[in-house]
Amino acid sequence: MTFSWNQVVAGRASKLAPSAFSDLEGIRSVEDLIFFAGGTPPLEKLPIARLRQASADAWEDAADHLYYGESQGHEPLRHMIAERMTSRGATTDPEHVMITNGSQQGLDLIARTLFDPGDVVVIEGPTYFGAMQAFDAYEVTYRTAPVDDDGLIPDELERLLREHPRPKAIYTVPTFQNPTGVTISPERRRRVVELSLEYTVPIIEDDPYGELHFPGDPVPPLRALDSNVIYLGTFSKTLAPALRMGWMVMPEALIPPLVNSKEAVDIQSDRFVQRAVVRACADGWLDAHLDEARALYQERCQRMIAALQREMPPGTRWITPQGGFFVWVTLTGEITSNALLPTAGKHGVAYLPGSAFYPDRRKEPTLRLGFSTLPDDKIDEGIHRLGRATAEFLG
Ligand SMILES: Cc1ncc(COP(=O)(O)O)c(C=O)c1O
Fold first, then answer.
1. Residues whose CB falls within 8 Å of the CB of residue 44, separated by 6 or more in sequence, listed in order
2. Residue from 40, 103, 105, 135 whose mutation best tests the ligand 1 pocket (most atoms within 8 A of CB)
């Protein structure tokens, strides 16, 4: 007898969406493809030697940490994170920090702890698709607050907060947002936090790119304005994504349920990797590493903007970010980036269409370009191909 798994799989699981990258499956096999879809540090800049040494050192006192333990995370790592958060303007006590397996796990733990089926969550439109993947499992629905060049629009947010039923949380990537690269302006930040307090709807601040500001003044996290903000950070973009090392800064009252959720999901994060990360970052190494990375990302971003200016048809618009990994492009004419994708693939270039970043997958003329992983010549050639593909498509 054949098992009918459709009858066994939970209703919610059958509705879970695959990663946005699945839309690109047909294109990824194109020979010599220039793939602007990445959102990671470049392979050649991963600090392999430093991490290898730090991992070897982490085995020195292995007998002390080969057991289960430290559900909330390794104290020296929480301490280091609290110090870094404090130096960025968000005063943080190590007791409020929990180590997670990347910020993706943080999103899941928050949703597991806060969301009941049918709850409404305000997200930015567009937003990081992985947050929706995490939240979807808890059967929430979304209201989308639009984003412009200055980030989340407070008046639009307020309109949604006034609605019935009142949303359960506001999820935002306020700094160098994925996918648009925009940063919420200082006035808007204050207003967004005021609204959260006025309507008693907590903010979930997802901040993987905040430390990757281009040389110049860093932007303090939203949590610097209010200790009710639940903050998510990660080493995925500053060290390497495969470490699966992130953290959460929790409001006092949420520490017990969030730590209980962490224990329920995986008991603890990898105790070796936590020790290796502390060792790797020690003695000012992380700051020196970040300084170098920021300069490189700024150079690549400028290169991409110059190429867009040169290669794209008149009327194309884009947002120039001040940090992070992404440029958000709005194509000219009555076309969607989804319709353009096969032609782009034929010309040997790929991107993530804007539709990936909305819960209703609405088709738009927008697309996300990642600049962090590609050297100058690939950026130039890739945008040249994109320009040619767009011109051909427009006729
Ligand atoms: C906004 C945002 N949140 C969370 C994540 C997931 O990061 P991590 O590797 O720490 O799980 C990403 C990764 O791209 C991201 O862009």
1. none
2. 103
Q: What does the pLDDT look like over 138-184, one tens digit per residue?
A: 999 999 999 999 999 999 999 999 998 899 999 999 999 999 999 99
Handedness of CA 142, 143, 147, 153 (dihedral sign): negative
Q: Which CATH number goes with the domain that contains 105?
A: 3.40.640.10
Residue where one domain finishes, among candidates 261, 283, 305: 283
- Looking only at the bridges linking them, the beta strands covering 317-319 and 326-330 are antiparallel
Ligand 1: does its nearest atom lie under 6 Å from the Cβ of 104?
yes
CB 133 near ligand 1, within 6 Å: no
Summary count for the chain: helices (H), strands (E): 14, 14
- The total of structural domains in the chain comes to 2
Residue 54 falls inside a structural domain = no
243 lines ligand 1 (CB under 6 A): no
Instruction: Please report whether residue 55 resides in a domain.
Output: no
Q: Are 368 and 339 in contact (CB under 8 A)?
A: no
Measured from the CB, is residue 102 less than 6 Å from ligand 1? Answer: yes
Residue range 8-49, pLDDT digits in tens: 999 888 888 887 777 787 788 888 999 998 899 999 999 999
Could you tell me which of 134, 64, 119, 125 has the C-alpha nearest to residue 274?
64
pTM for the predicted model, two decimal places: 0.97
